[in-house]
Design goal:
The structure holds 2 protein chains of 2 kinds. Chain A is mostly beta strands. Chain A contains no helices and 11 strands. By secondary structure, chain B is mainly beta. Classes of the chains: A mainly beta, B mainly beta.
């Protein structure tokens, strides 16, 4: 069974602070994705990383895929209240996604 | 574009009752998925359909059945609901050549 461990589970910070969320596995995945989920809604895809060592930027969000394609990180610069939500990583293999349990981020004004 | 739609949005059932959750996508995607989301457990795959005409079990299939009615629609049936099936259920779809999944808004099910 493939598992994805996310850390931290909860994170509460002040507006303007930086943060990093981690996603680790002992398995290799074909691709790794990050989703954000707001209360009462379904997850929404933020980014897909495919190549080991790949770095992608989405405005203030920076995503990195580990060289061995087993881990990933999400870094947010100058967090804003609108970044509040549940961040989920997911690894793709055999037509399926395996999800981590998520990091619940709260950004306080 | 509606994307992925799910009905109903909310449902309360009594133990032993049955119901079907409906999901439809208008993106011409090949693959469709049913997940449940519980506090502290993340998203867990119940069943999936890699292509029209095929269905396979996921991580937590017990107590559920699915039907891939056509390329657009994928339904999830609870034959005899149990309190342990109280959860939020999400349907998702993907083109099939990609793992990028698009999710519906969810169905919040309570079994008393």
């Amino acid at each position: 069974t493939q598992l994805l461990e996310q850390s931290p589970q909860f994170l509460s910070i002040q507006e303007g602070e930086n943060l990093t969320v981690y996603c680790n596995s002992s398995s290799v995945f074909s691709s790794l994705q990050w989703y954000r989920q707001e209360p009462g809604e379904g997850p929404v895809l933020l980014v897909t990383v495919v190549t080991g060592g790949e770095v992608k930027k989405l405005k203030r969000l920076t995503f990195q895929f580990g060289d061995a394609r087993k881990d990933s990180s999400l870094h947010i610069t100058a967090a804003q209240p609108g970044d509040t939500g549940l961040y989920l990583c997911a690894g793709g293999s055999n037509y399926k996604l395996t999800f981590g349990k998520g990091t619940l981020l709260t950004v306080n004004p | 574009n509606a994307g992925v739609t799910q009905t109903p949005k909310f449902q309360v059932l009594k133990t032993g009752q049955s119901m079907t959750l409906q999901c439809a996508q208008d993106m011409n995607h090949n693959s469709m998925y049913w997940y449940r989301q519980d506090p502290g457990m993340g998203l867990r795959l119940i069943y999936y359909s890699a292509s029209e005409g095929t269905t396979d079990k996921g991580e937590v299939p017990n107590g559920y059945n699915v039907s891939r009615l056509n390329k657009r629609e994928f339904s999830l049936r609870l034959e005899s609901a149990a309190p342990s099936q109280t959860s939020v259920y999400f349907c998702a779809s993907t083109a099939g050549y990609s793992y990028e999944q698009y999710f519906g808004p969810g169905t919040r099910l309570t079994v008393t």
